[in-house]
Specification:
alpha/beta, nine-stranded mixed β-sheet, about 350 residues, three-stranded antiparallel β-sheet, 18 helices
Protein backbone atom coordinates (compact mmCIF):
# COMPACT_ATOMS: atom_id res chain seq x y z
CA UNK A 1 0.00 0.00 0.00
CA UNK A 2 1.28 3.46 -0.90
CA UNK A 3 1.30 6.25 1.68
CA UNK A 4 1.66 9.98 1.17
CA UNK A 5 4.69 11.76 2.60
CA UNK A 6 2.50 13.13 5.38
CA UNK A 7 1.23 9.65 6.26
CA UNK A 8 4.76 8.23 6.11
CA UNK A 9 5.91 10.88 8.58
CA UNK A 10 3.07 9.94 10.92
CA UNK A 11 3.99 6.23 10.74
CA UNK A 12 7.61 7.25 11.41
CA UNK A 13 6.67 9.08 14.59
CA UNK A 14 4.31 6.31 15.72
CA UNK A 15 7.17 3.81 15.39
CA UNK A 16 9.20 5.61 18.05
CA UNK A 17 9.40 4.06 21.55
CA UNK A 18 6.30 4.85 23.60
CA UNK A 19 8.41 6.69 26.17
CA UNK A 20 9.34 9.29 23.55
CA UNK A 21 5.80 10.02 22.34
CA UNK A 22 5.13 13.00 24.62
CA UNK A 23 8.39 14.69 23.65
CA UNK A 24 7.68 14.08 19.98
CA UNK A 25 4.25 15.67 20.42
CA UNK A 26 5.95 18.76 21.81
CA UNK A 27 8.35 18.83 18.86
CA UNK A 28 5.47 18.53 16.39
CA UNK A 29 3.77 21.53 17.95
CA UNK A 30 6.99 23.53 17.78
CA UNK A 31 7.87 22.59 14.21
CA UNK A 32 4.46 22.44 12.55
CA UNK A 33 3.41 18.80 12.42
CA UNK A 34 4.76 15.37 11.42
CA UNK A 35 5.99 16.20 7.93
CA UNK A 36 7.71 19.39 9.09
CA UNK A 37 9.40 17.46 11.89
CA UNK A 38 10.52 14.81 9.38
CA UNK A 39 12.06 17.52 7.18
CA UNK A 40 13.76 19.28 10.10
CA UNK A 41 14.93 16.18 11.98
CA UNK A 42 18.59 16.58 12.89
CA UNK A 43 21.19 15.76 15.59
CA UNK A 44 19.86 18.81 17.44
CA UNK A 45 17.08 16.57 18.74
CA UNK A 46 19.46 14.01 20.23
CA UNK A 47 19.55 15.39 23.77
CA UNK A 48 15.79 15.81 23.97
CA UNK A 49 14.92 12.36 22.62
CA UNK A 50 17.78 10.31 24.03
CA UNK A 51 20.02 7.86 22.22
CA UNK A 52 17.53 5.02 21.73
CA UNK A 53 14.65 7.05 20.29
CA UNK A 54 16.88 9.33 18.23
CA UNK A 55 18.81 6.42 16.70
CA UNK A 56 15.65 4.51 15.82
CA UNK A 57 14.03 7.54 14.21
CA UNK A 58 17.21 8.39 12.32
CA UNK A 59 17.43 4.84 10.94
CA UNK A 60 13.76 4.79 9.98
CA UNK A 61 14.00 8.15 8.24
CA UNK A 62 17.08 7.04 6.35
CA UNK A 63 15.24 3.98 5.03
CA UNK A 64 11.91 5.81 4.63
CA UNK A 65 10.41 3.38 7.14
CA UNK A 66 11.23 0.42 4.91
CA UNK A 67 11.36 -2.08 7.83
CA UNK A 68 7.92 -1.03 9.09
CA UNK A 69 6.30 -1.08 5.66
CA UNK A 70 7.81 -4.45 4.75
CA UNK A 71 6.57 -5.98 7.99
CA UNK A 72 3.07 -4.64 7.31
CA UNK A 73 3.13 -6.07 3.78
CA UNK A 74 4.17 -9.50 5.08
CA UNK A 75 1.25 -9.45 7.51
CA UNK A 76 -1.26 -8.04 4.99
CA UNK A 77 -1.66 -5.19 7.47
CA UNK A 78 -2.37 -1.53 6.91
CA UNK A 79 -2.21 1.76 8.76
CA UNK A 80 -5.20 4.01 9.27
CA UNK A 81 -4.89 7.57 10.51
CA UNK A 82 -6.85 9.78 12.86
CA UNK A 83 -9.22 11.79 10.70
CA UNK A 84 -9.62 9.09 8.04
CA UNK A 85 -13.16 8.03 7.11
CA UNK A 86 -12.46 4.47 8.32
CA UNK A 87 -10.96 5.46 11.67
CA UNK A 88 -13.25 4.02 14.43
CA UNK A 89 -15.75 6.69 15.45
CA UNK A 90 -15.83 5.82 19.15
CA UNK A 91 -12.05 5.80 19.41
CA UNK A 92 -11.78 9.11 17.57
CA UNK A 93 -13.93 10.71 20.27
CA UNK A 94 -11.59 9.97 23.18
CA UNK A 95 -9.17 12.61 24.39
CA UNK A 96 -5.93 10.76 23.61
CA UNK A 97 -6.87 8.78 20.51
CA UNK A 98 -3.92 7.18 18.68
CA UNK A 99 -2.78 9.09 15.62
CA UNK A 100 -2.01 5.85 13.77
CA UNK A 101 -3.47 2.37 14.10
CA UNK A 102 -1.83 -0.69 12.58
CA UNK A 103 -4.49 -3.23 11.62
CA UNK A 104 -4.80 -6.80 10.39
CA UNK A 105 -8.26 -7.81 9.31
CA UNK A 106 -11.48 -5.85 9.09
CA UNK A 107 -13.06 -3.31 11.42
CA UNK A 108 -16.81 -3.44 12.04
CA UNK A 109 -18.97 -0.83 10.29
CA UNK A 110 -19.51 2.54 11.99
CA UNK A 111 -22.06 2.54 14.83
CA UNK A 112 -21.96 -1.28 15.14
CA UNK A 113 -22.47 -2.17 18.82
CA UNK A 114 -19.36 -3.32 20.67
CA UNK A 115 -18.65 -4.54 24.19
CA UNK A 116 -15.22 -5.05 25.74
CA UNK A 117 -14.83 -8.10 27.96
CA UNK A 118 -11.79 -7.97 30.22
CA UNK A 119 -10.47 -9.64 33.33
CA UNK A 120 -7.79 -11.70 34.97
CA UNK A 121 -5.10 -13.57 33.09
CA UNK A 122 -5.18 -16.24 35.81
CA UNK A 123 -8.89 -16.82 35.61
CA UNK A 124 -10.92 -19.52 37.32
CA UNK A 125 -12.97 -22.09 35.44
CA UNK A 126 -16.05 -20.12 36.44
CA UNK A 127 -14.67 -16.87 35.04
CA UNK A 128 -13.46 -18.48 31.83
CA UNK A 129 -16.75 -20.26 31.21
CA UNK A 130 -18.83 -17.16 31.91
CA UNK A 131 -16.69 -14.93 29.69
CA UNK A 132 -16.97 -17.39 26.83
CA UNK A 133 -20.72 -17.83 27.29
CA UNK A 134 -21.55 -14.13 27.54
CA UNK A 135 -19.32 -13.27 24.58
CA UNK A 136 -21.06 -15.97 22.57
CA UNK A 137 -24.52 -14.70 23.53
CA UNK A 138 -23.64 -11.13 22.57
CA UNK A 139 -21.92 -12.09 19.33
CA UNK A 140 -24.98 -14.12 18.31
CA UNK A 141 -26.90 -10.83 18.41
CA UNK A 142 -24.37 -8.96 16.28
CA UNK A 143 -22.35 -7.33 19.05
CA UNK A 144 -18.61 -7.05 18.38
CA UNK A 145 -16.48 -8.36 21.25
CA UNK A 146 -13.35 -6.35 22.08
CA UNK A 147 -10.55 -7.65 24.28
CA UNK A 148 -6.78 -7.81 24.58
CA UNK A 149 -5.77 -11.33 23.41
CA UNK A 150 -4.23 -12.04 26.81
CA UNK A 151 -4.43 -15.35 28.62
CA UNK A 152 -7.52 -16.08 30.71
CA UNK A 153 -10.63 -13.94 30.32
CA UNK A 154 -9.48 -12.18 27.13
CA UNK A 155 -8.89 -15.45 25.29
CA UNK A 156 -12.22 -16.85 26.48
CA UNK A 157 -14.06 -13.75 25.23
CA UNK A 158 -12.50 -13.96 21.77
CA UNK A 159 -13.26 -17.69 21.56
CA UNK A 160 -16.87 -17.18 22.58
CA UNK A 161 -17.38 -14.62 19.83
CA UNK A 162 -15.79 -16.90 17.26
CA UNK A 163 -17.94 -19.84 18.35
CA UNK A 164 -21.01 -17.74 17.57
CA UNK A 165 -19.68 -16.85 14.14
CA UNK A 166 -19.41 -13.25 15.33
CA UNK A 167 -16.77 -10.55 15.06
CA UNK A 168 -14.11 -9.82 17.64
CA UNK A 169 -11.29 -7.28 17.91
CA UNK A 170 -8.02 -7.91 19.75
CA UNK A 171 -6.04 -4.87 20.87
CA UNK A 172 -2.36 -5.64 21.41
CA UNK A 173 0.23 -4.24 23.77
CA UNK A 174 2.92 -5.09 21.23
CA UNK A 175 3.44 -4.97 17.48
CA UNK A 176 1.61 -7.06 14.90
CA UNK A 177 4.74 -9.09 14.13
CA UNK A 178 5.03 -10.24 17.74
CA UNK A 179 3.01 -13.24 18.96
CA UNK A 180 2.14 -12.52 22.57
CA UNK A 181 1.32 -14.58 24.41
CA UNK A 182 2.91 -17.17 22.09
CA UNK A 183 0.15 -19.72 22.55
CA UNK A 184 -2.42 -17.27 21.12
CA UNK A 185 -0.81 -17.02 17.70
CA UNK A 186 -3.41 -19.39 16.22
CA UNK A 187 -6.23 -17.52 17.98
CA UNK A 188 -5.06 -14.24 16.44
CA UNK A 189 -5.24 -15.81 12.99
CA UNK A 190 -8.70 -17.20 13.75
CA UNK A 191 -9.86 -13.69 14.63
CA UNK A 192 -8.65 -12.31 11.30
CA UNK A 193 -10.01 -15.28 9.33
CA UNK A 194 -13.36 -14.84 11.10
CA UNK A 195 -13.76 -11.30 9.80
CA UNK A 196 -12.45 -9.51 12.89
CA UNK A 197 -9.33 -7.46 13.47
CA UNK A 198 -6.04 -7.29 15.36
CA UNK A 199 -5.19 -3.70 16.28
CA UNK A 200 -2.26 -1.90 17.85
CA UNK A 201 -0.84 1.60 17.94
CA UNK A 202 2.68 0.15 18.18
CA UNK A 203 5.00 -0.51 15.25
CA UNK A 204 5.10 -4.12 14.00
CA UNK A 205 8.26 -5.15 15.86
CA UNK A 206 7.44 -3.46 19.19
CA UNK A 207 7.92 -5.90 22.11
CA UNK A 208 5.26 -6.55 24.80
CA UNK A 209 6.72 -4.24 27.44
CA UNK A 210 4.88 -3.91 30.75
CA UNK A 211 4.15 -0.19 30.35
CA UNK A 212 2.50 -0.74 26.96
CA UNK A 213 -0.53 -2.53 28.39
CA UNK A 214 -2.08 0.14 30.65
CA UNK A 215 -1.79 2.59 27.73
CA UNK A 216 -3.36 0.22 25.19
CA UNK A 217 -6.31 -0.33 27.57
CA UNK A 218 -7.72 3.07 26.61
CA UNK A 219 -8.10 1.69 23.07
CA UNK A 220 -10.00 -1.36 24.30
CA UNK A 221 -12.54 0.82 26.09
CA UNK A 222 -12.49 3.49 23.39
CA UNK A 223 -13.55 0.99 20.72
CA UNK A 224 -16.46 -0.17 22.88
CA UNK A 225 -19.83 1.10 24.02
CA UNK A 226 -19.33 -0.57 27.39
CA UNK A 227 -16.88 -2.70 29.35
CA UNK A 228 -17.73 -5.94 31.14
CA UNK A 229 -15.37 -6.97 33.92
CA UNK A 230 -15.12 -10.68 34.69
CA UNK A 231 -12.77 -11.52 37.57
CA UNK A 232 -9.93 -9.29 38.73
CA UNK A 233 -8.31 -8.44 42.01
CA UNK A 234 -8.67 -4.86 43.16
CA UNK A 235 -5.05 -3.98 42.40
CA UNK A 236 -5.16 -5.68 39.00
CA UNK A 237 -3.92 -3.99 35.85
CA UNK A 238 -7.43 -4.53 34.50
CA UNK A 239 -8.49 -1.67 36.76
CA UNK A 240 -6.95 0.75 34.25
CA UNK A 241 -9.41 -0.36 31.57
CA UNK A 242 -12.30 0.40 33.92
CA UNK A 243 -10.83 3.82 34.74
CA UNK A 244 -10.46 4.59 31.03
CA UNK A 245 -14.04 3.47 30.41
CA UNK A 246 -15.35 5.78 33.14
CA UNK A 247 -13.27 8.71 31.84
CA UNK A 248 -14.58 8.08 28.33
CA UNK A 249 -18.21 7.90 29.43
CA UNK A 250 -18.59 4.20 28.66
CA UNK A 251 -20.98 1.91 30.52
CA UNK A 252 -19.37 -0.44 33.05
CA UNK A 253 -20.74 -3.90 33.79
CA UNK A 254 -19.51 -6.52 36.23
CA UNK A 255 -20.15 -10.21 36.70
CA UNK A 256 -20.72 -11.22 40.33
CA UNK A 257 -18.70 -14.11 41.72
CA UNK A 258 -18.11 -15.89 45.01
CA UNK A 259 -17.66 -13.24 47.68
CA UNK A 260 -14.56 -14.94 49.08
CA UNK A 261 -12.84 -15.52 45.73
CA UNK A 262 -9.84 -13.26 44.98
CA UNK A 263 -11.12 -12.68 41.45
CA UNK A 264 -14.37 -11.26 42.82
CA UNK A 265 -12.67 -8.31 44.56
CA UNK A 266 -12.88 -5.77 41.77
CA UNK A 267 -16.23 -6.86 40.25
CA UNK A 268 -17.95 -6.71 43.65
CA UNK A 269 -16.34 -3.34 44.39
CA UNK A 270 -17.64 -1.97 41.09
CA UNK A 271 -21.12 -3.37 41.72
CA UNK A 272 -21.19 -1.61 45.09
CA UNK A 273 -20.17 1.61 43.37
CA UNK A 274 -22.97 1.41 40.81
CA UNK A 275 -21.75 -0.73 37.94
CA UNK A 276 -24.52 -2.60 36.14
CA UNK A 277 -24.80 -6.27 37.00
CA UNK A 278 -24.31 -8.75 34.16
CA UNK A 279 -25.12 -12.44 34.44
CA UNK A 280 -25.86 -13.06 30.76
CA UNK A 281 -25.68 -11.38 27.38
CA UNK A 282 -29.29 -10.29 27.62
CA UNK A 283 -28.48 -8.10 30.63
CA UNK A 284 -26.22 -5.98 28.42
CA UNK A 285 -28.55 -6.11 25.41
CA UNK A 286 -31.43 -4.85 27.55
CA UNK A 287 -29.41 -2.21 29.39
CA UNK A 288 -28.04 -0.82 26.13
CA UNK A 289 -31.47 -1.15 24.45
CA UNK A 290 -29.92 -3.10 21.59
CA UNK A 291 -32.27 -6.05 21.55
CA UNK A 292 -35.72 -6.59 22.97
CA UNK A 293 -35.85 -10.32 22.35
CA UNK A 294 -34.09 -12.56 24.84
CA UNK A 295 -31.54 -14.82 23.08
CA UNK A 296 -31.67 -18.55 23.44
CA UNK A 297 -29.56 -19.30 26.48
CA UNK A 298 -28.33 -22.47 28.08
CA UNK A 299 -29.60 -23.00 31.57
CA UNK A 300 -28.60 -24.88 34.66
CA UNK A 301 -32.23 -25.92 35.08
CA UNK A 302 -32.46 -29.68 34.75
CA UNK A 303 -34.57 -31.38 32.12
CA UNK A 304 -36.97 -34.13 33.16
CA UNK A 305 -34.46 -36.67 31.89
CA UNK A 306 -31.64 -35.13 33.91
CA UNK A 307 -33.80 -35.10 37.03
CA UNK A 308 -33.79 -38.89 36.92
CA UNK A 309 -30.01 -38.97 37.29
CA UNK A 310 -29.12 -38.72 41.01
CA UNK A 311 -25.68 -37.23 40.33
CA UNK A 312 -26.93 -34.48 38.00
CA UNK A 313 -29.71 -33.76 40.46
CA UNK A 314 -27.16 -33.45 43.28
CA UNK A 315 -25.00 -31.09 41.20
CA UNK A 316 -27.89 -28.90 40.05
CA UNK A 317 -27.01 -25.97 42.32
CA UNK A 318 -23.31 -26.23 43.11
CA UNK A 319 -20.26 -28.46 42.92
CA UNK A 320 -19.95 -31.38 45.33
CA UNK A 321 -17.08 -33.49 46.58
CA UNK A 322 -17.01 -37.23 46.12
CA UNK A 323 -17.89 -37.75 49.78
CA UNK A 324 -20.84 -35.36 49.49
CA UNK A 325 -22.09 -37.17 46.39
CA UNK A 326 -21.83 -40.52 48.12
CA UNK A 327 -23.93 -39.20 50.97
CA UNK A 328 -26.48 -37.31 48.85
CA UNK A 329 -27.05 -39.91 46.12
CA UNK A 330 -26.89 -42.96 48.37
CA UNK A 331 -24.95 -44.76 45.63
CA UNK A 332 -22.18 -47.18 46.66
CA UNK A 333 -18.71 -46.01 45.73
CA UNK A 334 -18.17 -48.90 43.26
CA UNK A 335 -21.27 -47.69 41.36
CA UNK A 336 -20.77 -43.94 41.76
CA UNK A 337 -17.17 -43.81 40.56
CA UNK A 338 -17.74 -45.30 37.07
CA UNK A 339 -20.96 -43.29 36.72
CA UNK A 340 -18.99 -40.08 37.35
CA UNK A 341 -16.49 -41.13 34.71
CA UNK A 342 -19.27 -41.68 32.16
CA UNK A 343 -20.82 -38.28 32.89
CA UNK A 344 -17.40 -36.65 32.59
CA UNK A 345 -16.67 -38.34 29.26
CA UNK A 346 -20.06 -37.27 27.93
CA UNK A 347 -19.30 -33.64 28.78
CA UNK A 348 -22.03 -33.26 31.39
CA UNK A 349 -19.79 -32.76 34.42
CA UNK A 350 -16.19 -31.78 35.07
CA UNK A 351 -13.66 -32.72 37.73
CA UNK A 352 -12.40 -29.89 39.95
CA UNK A 353 -9.68 -29.58 42.60
CA UNK A 354 -10.33 -31.16 45.98
CA UNK A 355 -12.04 -34.30 44.60
CA UNK A 356 -15.01 -32.14 43.58
CA UNK A 357 -17.35 -32.37 40.59
CA UNK A 358 -19.54 -29.75 38.89
CA UNK A 359 -22.08 -29.65 36.08
CA UNK A 360 -21.02 -28.15 32.77
CA UNK A 361 -23.49 -25.69 31.33
CA UNK A 362 -24.61 -27.02 27.91
Amino acid sequence: MDYTNEQLARIWLQAAPMGAWSRLDQLQQLHGGPLALWDQFSPAFYDLLGESAFSLLADLKRSRCREVLQAMDQLSARAIFFGDHDYPLGLAAIEDAPDVLFIRGQLPPPHAPAIAIVGARRSSRYGTQQARRIARELAEKGVTIVSGLARGIDSAAHLGALEAGGKTIAVLGCGLSVSYPPENKALAQQIVDGGGAIITELAPSAPPLAHHFPVRNRIISGLSDGVLLIEAQERSGTHSTINHALDQGREVFALPGNVDAPGSELPLKLLKEGAAICTCGQDILSFMEWEAKRPEQASFLLSDEDMEDPVLRALAIEEKTLDELLQETGMPVEELTPHLTLLELSGQIERRPGRAFARIKP
